[in-house]
Amino acid sequence: PCFLKDWELHVHFRIHGAGKKNLHGDGLALWYTQERLVPGPVFGSKDNFHGLAIFLDTYPNDEATERVFPYISAMVNNGSLTYDHSKDGRWTELAGCTADLRNQNHDTFLAIRYSRGRLTVMTDVEDKNEWKNCIDIAGVQLPTGYFFGASAGTGDLSDNHDIISMKLFQLMVEHPLEDETVDWTKIEPSVSLLKSPKDNVDDPTGNFRSGPLTGWKVFLLLLCALLGIIVCAVVGAVVFQKRQERNKRFY
């Protein structure tokens, strides 16, 4: 078990196979969970887990999706959520991004950083030797004492999922004094979101955007636009008046 409050995990991996286009699957998962690995239906591990999962999904099960695969996503679970394979976990996904990580001829890496309630996932899959931001979420609560692990799953289609190395680093971060009284092993895995992941809809870029505008949102947008027009008109009038006064002085 890991008893670090702040950590960063670097994973050197490779996903490869002979399948072309979408004729491969299913993907790789990286875990930080309460239990050691238990075989199950979620990329080879159990569902309704406690903790954090990062999914490297290579196969689109939802034919209506606009996302580009392979797709990396994050999920935090307190045991009450079920991963929906038919929708590629969209209802429980916190954030995600597209990453061209399959069948690369160079090394591919993933970094997961957790520090002071902030979860960051970065990739290095373009052979540039630099991290590229994929996921950045604040308000994440993860306890200490959980286990790191990895699993993969295949169905009628298959792929090779190789874990070459996993390296864990401790981050030296200052915490508020009140954190010293917290029993970090008793924290419930959770995320403080401004909106539910279910409010998210697909974006062709692979990211999330908010759902359709409701009536009050439209009202606020119109109100802001009206205020902006009024401010511009007032500023324009003042500028025009000053120019007029300046021209009078020249005469």
Automatic annotation (TrEMBL):
InterPro entries: ConA-like_dom_sf (IPR013320), Intracellular_Lectin-GPT (IPR051136), Lectin_leg (IPR005052). One of its GO terms (biological process) is endoplasmic reticulum to Golgi vesicle-mediated transport. Keywords: Disulfide bond, Glycoprotein, Golgi apparatus, Lectin, Membrane, Metal-binding, Signal, Transmembrane, Transmembrane helix. The chain crosses the membrane at residues 218-240. Its main location: membrane. Pfam families: Lectin_leg-like. One of its GO terms (cellular component) is Golgi membrane. This is LMAN2 protein. The gene is Lman2.
